[in-house]
Specification:
Layout lengths: L2 H21 L4 H47 L5 E5 L8 E8 L2 E11 L2 E9 L19
Antiparallel strand pairs: 1-2, 2-3, 3-4
Helix pairs in contact: 1-2
Length: 143
């Protein structure tokens, strides 16, 4: 679970407990309405946080398919591995990491925004020798 998700859940359930506790001080008819609203909010929270991983997984799958097509066009006759980042939030933009098989020491970061694909960053995954200079072969930012 992502830390911000955990904090959100703590905030929602704490607010529900406080409102539920304060509802005991209210008149009977208002107390019933407040309990009904609290129940509704808690059910929506559980549904949202249950469905959210499925939606994010689908968004990542679609972005991966777009990136696969882009890489096949830009770098034919090559192979690679695509991994997603550890950001599990709803966003319009998806970030994916690519490691090419002929260049295993460099990780390329791609941003997928709808149908637009940009290579936004790259970094050395691990370096065998400090004096080795590695020239990236798949740098799309200079094109």
């Amino acid at each position: 679970m992502h830390p911000t998700t955990f904090i959100s859940l703590i905030f929602i359930f704490t607010a529900a407990l406080v409102i539920g506790g304060l509802s005991f001080l209210l008149p009977e008819r208002i107390k019933k309405r407040s309990w009904l609203i609290l129940t509704f909010i808690l059910i929506l929270t559980v549904i949202f946080f249950s469905i959210r991983p499925v939606i994010i997984k689908h968004e990542t799958k679609v972005a991966t398919e777009h990136l696969e097509l882009h890489l096949k066009n830009m770098h034919p006759n090559e192979s690679w591995v695509i991994t997603d980042t550890d950001e599990y939030r709803f966003k319009n933009v998806t970030y994916l990491h690519v490691i090419f098989d002929n260049e295993p020491n460099i990780v390329y970061m791609y941003m997928i925004d709808g149908s637009q694909i940009y290579q936004i960053d790259m970094w050395l995954f691990k370096q065998t020798n400090e004096t080795d200079e590695i020239e990236p072969l798949h740098d799309e930012r200079k094109l």
